[in-house]
Design brief:
This is Flavodoxin-like fold domain-containing protein. The chain has 5 helices and 7 strands; from the N terminus they run βαβαβαβββαβα. Helices cover 39% and strands 22% of the residues. By secondary structure, it is α/β, with parallel strands linked by helices.
Length: 190
C-alpha cells in the first residue's frame, strides 16, 4: 500500500484531465491511500512576486499541498500540455510551493543542493492535442524540465510519464482505453 498524492493540474473544472484523475483516484483508493487535489479548486496568487528575496504569504491551499507532498510516497500529476509547457496556474503552484527550506536547500557556499523531498516517486500524465507523430517530441522539453529541473531537483525520482493524444480527435473508444490504462497504473500504484 502506497501513500499517493494525486493532482489534477488542469485549471478547468471539466476536462479530460479531470476524467483521468477521477479514474485514477477510484482505482488507486481500492489498494492505496490517496489524497486528491484539483487545481481548479485552489485559490492562490500564482506569481512568486519576490522570488526568494522576501517571504510571501503561503495560502492555506498551498500549505495543504505542501503537507500532502511531505505525506506522499508517490506523486501523480495529470496535466494538459499547452504550448509545450504546463498551464500557467500549475507552474504557479510549483513556484509557490517548492520553496527553499521546504523542497530544497542550498549549502552555505551555495554550490551544493540538498534535496528535501527524497524517497518519493512520480508519474506525470500528459494530454495534448499534438498529432501522435509529434506528441513525444512536443513533450520532450517539459519532461526534461520536470525530471531534472523541478521534481528531480527536490529529490523526487524516478519520474515516469504517460502521454495521451491527440486529445481533440479522441473518440469515446480511445478515451475509454486511456481511462483503462490509467486505472491499471492506479491499481499498481504507478
Amino acid at each position: 500500500m502506497k501513500k499517493i498524492l494525486l493532482l489534477n493540474g488542469n485549471p478547468k473544472n471539466k476536462s479530460l484531465c479531470h476524467a483521468l484523475t477521477t479514474s485514477y483516484a477510484r482505482a488507486a483508493s481500492t489498494q492505496h491511500q490517496v489524497r486528491r487535489m484539483d487545481l481548479h479548486e485552489m485559490h492562490f496568487e500564482v506569481n512568486l512576486m519576490y522570488g526568494y528575496e522576501a517571504n510571501q504569504v503561503v495560502e492555506p491551499c498551498l500549505q495543504q499541498f505542501q503537507q500532502n507532498l511531505l505525506w506522499a510516497e508517490h506523486i501523480v500529476i495529470v496535466s494538459p500540455l499547452w504550448w509545450l509547457a504546463l498551464p500557467a496556474k500549475l507552474k504557479g503552484l510549483i513556484d509557490r510551493t517548492l520553496l527553499p527550506g521546504f523542497a530544497f536547500k542550498y549549502s552555505e557556499t551555495g554550490t551544493e543542493v540538498e534535496k528535501l523531498l527524497p524517497n518519493k516517486t512520480a508519474r506525470v500524465i500528459l494530454t495534448s492535442d499534438a498529432p501522435q507523430t509529434h506528441l513525444e517530441q512536443a513533450a520532450e522539453g517539459l519532461i526534461t524540465q520536470l525530471t531534472h529541473g523541478t521534481l528531480g531537483f527536490c529529490g523526487i525520482a524516478p519520474t515516469q510519464y504517460t502521454l495521451f493524444g491527440p486529445a481533440h480527435l479522441a473518440t469515446s473508444e480511445v478515451i475509454d482505453n486511456w481511462l483503462s490504462e490509467v486505472t491499471s497504473l492506479a491499481v499498481r500504484g504507478e
